[in-house]
């Protein structure tokens, strides 16, 4: 894989207000056990007409190399990266971090998290880039969230995950096909994950944009970072758009060689 181009320096102060703060070592135990979810950054690349791919299940290039480096820089600031199983099957992503300030720096090992209620991962994992990155010590094996009923009906899932060092996280789902986001993030927090970068796909993005903490009413997303590429993908493309109005606050814009990036918080 070709090395990433250097990070554009102006992106560092632009992104900084929207990134998780480092927790002092003396406070780590408290941070890992409190009831608050991890810091959640939702980030993705989209076309001008709010599409993230040209059609369902098709990997589509939208962003410039400049903002691809930015994506790996963002990964270097988080403990975990979360995607839905549809994104894994469509893109075969490595889900690792390739950003380094210097070539001699060690890799930042970000933990992949895959939302996979019915464990579709199994037949595709052994030949995946995700597993290859782990075998080459350039990444970590994933945490996979699977419905408890799926695991009970197929005991081989546990042995498969044990064999491949996959962390299996069984959860109840309600309704049948969905997990509650607050439950997901609190379970990740119990596993010492204090910040999560969510990258997709469309159903995950649209769901999280409107998700709120039931007790406080606050958005679950701490920061929203969207890269907008200069392309229309058309009506057959996979659309990202919440089902009702959503206003952004604390908005900042950055424009690079090709792409624009918007950072914000949710109202």
From TrEMBL:
Keyword Zinc attached: no
InterPro entries reported in the protein's UniProt record: DHFR-like_dom_sf, RibDG_C, Riboflavin_Biosynth_HTPR
EC number: 1.1.1.302
Reaction(s) catalysed (UniProt annotation): 2,5-diamino-6-(1-D-ribitylamino)pyrimidin-4(3H)-one 5'-phosphate + NAD(+) = 2,5-diamino-6-(1-D-ribosylamino)pyrimidin-4(3H)-one 5'-phosphate + NADH + H(+); 2,5-diamino-6-(1-D-ribitylamino)pyrimidin-4(3H)-one 5'-phosphate + NADP(+) = 2,5-diamino-6-(1-D-ribosylamino)pyrimidin-4(3H)-one 5'-phosphate + NADPH + H(+)
Any single biological process term in GO: riboflavin biosynthetic process
Pfam families: RibD_C
Keywords per UniProt: NADP, Oxidoreductase, Riboflavin biosynthesis
Recorded GO MF terms: 5-amino-6-(5-phosphoribosylamino)uracil reductase activity
Pathway recorded for this protein: Cofactor biosynthesis; riboflavin biosynthesis
The Bacterial bifunctional deaminase-reductase C-terminal domain, residue ranges: 38-258
Family in the record: Belongs to the HTP reductase family.
Function: Catalyzes an early step in riboflavin biosynthesis, the NADPH-dependent reduction of the ribose side chain of 2,5-diamino-6-ribosylamino-4(3H)-pyrimidinone 5'-phosphate, yielding 2,5-diamino-6-ribitylamino-4(3H)-pyrimidinone 5'-phosphate.
PANTHER family: 2,5-DIAMINO-6-RIBOSYLAMINO-4(3H)-PYRIMIDINONE 5'-PHOSPHATE REDUCTASE, DIHYDROFOLATE REDUCTASE FAMILY PROTEIN (AFU_ORTHOLOGUE AFUA_8G06820)
The protein, known as: 2,5-diamino-6-ribosylamino-4(3H)-pyrimidinone 5'-phosphate reductase
């Amino acid at each position: 894989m070709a090395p990433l181009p250097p990070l554009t320096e102006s992106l560092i102060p632009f992104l900084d207000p929207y990134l998780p703060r480092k927790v002092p070592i003396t406070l780590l135990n408290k941070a890992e056990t409190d009831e608050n979810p991890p810091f959640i950054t939702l980030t993705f690349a989209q076309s001008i007409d709010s599409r993230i791919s040209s059609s369902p299940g098709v990997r589509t290039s939208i962003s410039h190399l400049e903002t691809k480096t930015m994506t790996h820089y963002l990964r270097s600031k988080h403990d975990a990266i979360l995607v839905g199983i549809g994104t894994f099957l469509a893109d075969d992503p490595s889900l690792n971090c390739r950003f380094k300030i210097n070539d001699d720096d060690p890799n930042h090992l970000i933990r992949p998290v895959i939302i996979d209620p019915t464990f579709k991962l199994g037949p595709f994992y052994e030949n995946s880039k995700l597993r290859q990155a782990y075998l080459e010590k350039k990444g970590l094996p994933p945490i996979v969230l699977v419905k408890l009923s799926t695991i009970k009906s197929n005991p081989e899932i546990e042995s498969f995950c044990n064999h491949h060092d996959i962390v299996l996280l069984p959860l109840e789902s309600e309704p049948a096909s969905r997990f509650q986001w607050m439950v997901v993030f609190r379970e990740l927090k119990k596993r010492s994950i204090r910040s999560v970068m969510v990258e997709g796909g469309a159903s995950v993005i649209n769901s999280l944009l409107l998700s709120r903490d039931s007790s406080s009413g606050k958005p679950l997303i701490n920061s929203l970072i969207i890269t907008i590429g200069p392309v229309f993908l058309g009506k057959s493309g996979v659309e990202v758009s919440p089902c009702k109005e959503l206003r952004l606050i604390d908005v900042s814009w950055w424009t690079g060689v090709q792409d624009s990036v918007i950072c914000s918080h949710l109202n």
